[in-house]
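Bumping my old thread because nobody answered last time. Still need a sequence for this structure:
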């Protein structure tokens, strides 16, 4: 009888886990901002997003300037940049959240949202980046993050519509064209 009860409870538990709501878009996640306060990404519903993993000591760090420039140009049209510092590549983001915030402000005048440092790959990958990189949740743009400043373009409904590698600058014509296309929808 006890064995039956244990098996029954295990089946019920597994069914409940399988019925847990899946993360269906970028907007279904909660993350911490650079001040370590929880932010429900659903506050960006209706906005076009560029989600970027960033680092302060990378050869691509000057992309912060282009990110800020396009943010200023398109923000009033419903565009947001969500920057996620990550220390996954050669210790290129070793700072604390406070140090990262200060660096971005002083060196590049960053005004777009910065979030708390996370991991974008490996065993401790943040759930948002797991969603962005897995085939089953993002089949068209999945794949491991290979380096800092990988960019995901997200439509107004929270779905990934494009991905740009580290070498593609934020103000590259193909990125601008994709952003403008999404903003016109």
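Sorry it took so long. Here it is:
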């Amino acid at each position: 009888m006890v064995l039956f009860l244990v098996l029954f409870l295990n089946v019920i538990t597994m069914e409940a886990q399988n019925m847990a709501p899946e993360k269906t878009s970028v907007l279904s996640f909660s993350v911490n901002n650079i001040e370590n306060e929880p932010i429900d990404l659903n506050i960006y519903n209706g906005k076009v997003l560029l989600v970027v993993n960033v680092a302060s000591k990378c050869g691509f760090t000057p992309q912060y300037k282009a990110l800020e420039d396009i943010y200023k140009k398109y923000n009033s049209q419903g565009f947001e940049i969500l920057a996620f510092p990550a220390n996954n590549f050669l210790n290129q983001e070793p700072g604390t959240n406070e140090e990262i915030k200060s660096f971005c402000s002083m060196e590049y005048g960053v005004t777009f949202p910065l979030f708390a440092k996370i991991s974008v790959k490996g065993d401790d990958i943040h759930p948002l980046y797991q969603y962005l990189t897995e085939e089953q949740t993002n089949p068209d743009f999945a794949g491991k993050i290979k380096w800092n400043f990988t960019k995901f373009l997200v439509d107004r409904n929270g779905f990934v519509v494009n991905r740009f590698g580290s070498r593609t600058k934020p103000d590259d014509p193909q990125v601008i064209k994709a952003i403008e296309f999404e903003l016109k929808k």
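The longest strand covers residues 48-54. Let me know if any region looks off to you.
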